[in-house]
Amino acid sequence: MSYFLTEDQEAMRRVAQKFARxxxxxxxxxxxxDEHAPEWLTKRCGELGFLAIRIPEAYGGMGGxxxxxxxxxxxxxxxxxxxxxxxxxxxxxxxxxxDILGTDAQKRRLLPDSATGHRVMAFSQTEPAGAGNTKxxxxxxxxxxxxxxxxxxxxxxxxxxxxxxLVFCKTERDGQQGYGCVVVEREDEGFExxxxxxxxxxxxxNTGPIAFNDVKVSADDVLGDLLTGNxxxxxxxxxxxxxxxxxxxxxMEGLFDLTVAYVKxxxxxxxxxxxxxxxxxxxAQVYAKIEACRSLLYSSTRLLDEGRMTGPQGSICxxxxxxxxxxCTSQLLQMWGGSGMMNSTGVNRYMRDARAKMVxxxxxxxxxxxxxxxxxxxxxxxxx
Length: 384
Fold this sequence. Notes:
Layout: H1 7-34, H2 39-47, H3 66-77, H4 81-101, H5 104-116, E1 121-124, E2 140-144, E3 147-158, E4 164-173, E5 176-185, E6 191-193, E7 207-217, E8 222-223, H6 229-232, H7 234-265, E9 267-268, E10 271-272, H8 277-305, H9 313-334, H10 348-357, H11 364-374
Helix pairs in contact: 1-3, 3-4, 3-7, 4-5, 4-7, 7-8, 7-9, 7-10, 8-9, 9-10, 9-11
């Protein structure tokens, strides 16, 4: 993909490649087995400048573009799609929400530490009622004098070592109903991080339910307009969808590279495996799909970077690339035979992580509904 990168983007790609190869890959399988990514990894990404890419320079960041962020995520996902998925939240989604909704004082409080990896943030929206459809959510913020009280609970919150939680909730102001965002700190009274889930894929992240029991929220912790906060962050959501698509692209590439090396070294039925036409035919098909996904992703990120995006390019990338990644990793894993079934080989995690991406950050069906609404076929599941 170097044929269209700027010098700065190419330089950052090389930094990400080196980090992925020398520091992330050696522990990638252990991250999956332990269901935990060491905290030093996130701080190391801060040292390398990855977390600062999308944060404005005024708040300790680099003010970089989405294309560069996705290049980094793609390279890291070749080693650990799960860790790259967690990093996507820290690089794109959370700082983007704060940048759009926050006041200058809030940005100065939250973003500089986010840029260095010393403040991990979590994005929390999904609920049992309505999943991603905010119309049916129950978590609510109510007035309490000059402050507010937050009550309810969320599902599938990717937390890791999160210090600050960006929580979306039902709100009311002057008799008007709305949906807004507040910041909850991990140590706040009444806030509970509950037991982490044991997941099929994306095991390198800690995901689970969180609950709010009369958590006091001050005016300093209200981000943006309490009635329109969810609608205001639509551009960030589109960028985040592309970030997750970048991790799925890297997931495909990572297993593809390992499989090509495996096929070249393995003999099957008395001859080198790479001389079997069904094998090379399948590898050729996967390679073509990887290139198609790369073209879709980076043409879309450029549209956003240049302010020319008019459609749901994020949803298109998320739905198509994540589904394709699961299809391709399943085919690649088949070439490993019984070895691919063994967790010790570290290859089946790619397929499991690819499968998780089909529901993380909005299930494929939700993105299809968004795309359908854009072309004139509104679906009820995207209302709210």
